[in-house]
Amino acid sequence: MFESVKIAPSILSADFMHLGRDIALIEEAGAGYVHVDVMDGHFVPNLTMGVPVVKQLKKATNLPLDVHLMIANPLEQLPWFLDAGADSVTVHAEALDADQLMRAIAAIHAAGAKAAVSVKPRTTAGALAPVIADVDMVLVMSVEPGFSGQSYIEGSDAKVARIVDVARAVGASPLIQVDGGIGVKTAPLVAAAGADVLVCGNAVFAADDPAAALAAVQAAADEAGLAALAAAPKGA
Ligand code: DX5
Ligand code: ZN
């Protein structure tokens, strides 16, 4: 059965002076998640937002809070984000060794949240093999993490397809999320390759009409996803 992709607008591109208004707007427009980009100035050069923002967001929306941790010490900070109300938490494979990664996934699950692991553009799909059966979602970075508004790195869609294969090889089917430079032109590429969740920062919030922009990305992705499914049914 065909499942529509879910759009996860990244509030890094929202208007922080009117964050409540922007959250209400994407909720009304049919977003699937609120994507929260947490950066610490160490794992990535940029510094953004943390636990207090997640706490406030939890009061402001019914949408699931999808917290993307681009921080050097996720194991230390994880409990705070889980307490604050994160519904899904993504840790980076590059920030943790294999044992730490399993501990992070277990801690997220113990709190009743969904666990995701992310790979940067230069980390191979194969690096996910040891954990792919244990996660609810894989986040494929289609830009170098750190800043919104960057251009999609070509070939990221092929990486999505490779990750789908890595998962299938062990009988797993985590959601695949793609993050970075996603808009009406790039969403069809990754949706056709098997992406389920698309993070959009600038494509939504820098648009004159963010609700219409969200709908346009969703429609472009769904059209491509449907065509790909017709050509090669999932699981075939
Ligand atoms: C980048 C962040 C992204 C980013 C997306 O490090 O993880 O979520 O804000 O922004 P756009 O869609 O503008 O590339
Ligand atoms: Zn992100």
Number of helices: 8
Bound molecules: D-xylitol-5-phosphate, zinc ion
State mean pLDDT (0 to 100 scale).
Answer: 97
Biggest sheet, spatial arrangement of strands: 1-8-7-6-5-4-3-2
Span between termini:
13 Å
Main sheet overview: 8 strands, parallel
The geometry reads as: globular
Secondary-structure content class? alpha/beta
The oligomeric state of the chains shown is single chain
Radius of gyration, Cα only, in angstroms? Answer: 16 Å
Secondary structure tally: strands: 8
Unreliably modeled segments: none
Q: What is the H-and-E element order?
A: EHEHEHEHEEHEHEHH
The proportion of strand residues reads 15-25%
Report on the structure:
This protein is α/β, with parallel strands linked by helices and 236 residues long. It contains 8 helices and 8 strands, in the order βαβαβαβαββαβαβαα. The protein has helices at 19-28, 51-60, 74-84, 98-110, 156-169, 187-193, 202-205, 210-231; strands at residues 6-9, 34-39, 65-70, 88-92, 114-119, 137-141, 175-179, 197-200. The model has no long low-confidence stretch (mean pLDDT 97). Bound molecules: D-xylitol-5-phosphate and zinc ion (ZN). The site of D-xylitol-5-phosphate has 21 residues, from β2, β8 and α7.
Could you write a compact summary of the structure shown?
The chain has helices spanning 19-28, 51-60, 74-84, 98-110, 156-169, 187-193, 202-205, 210-231, and strands spanning 6-9, 34-39, 65-70, 88-92, 114-119, 137-141, 175-179, 197-200. It is an alpha/beta fold.
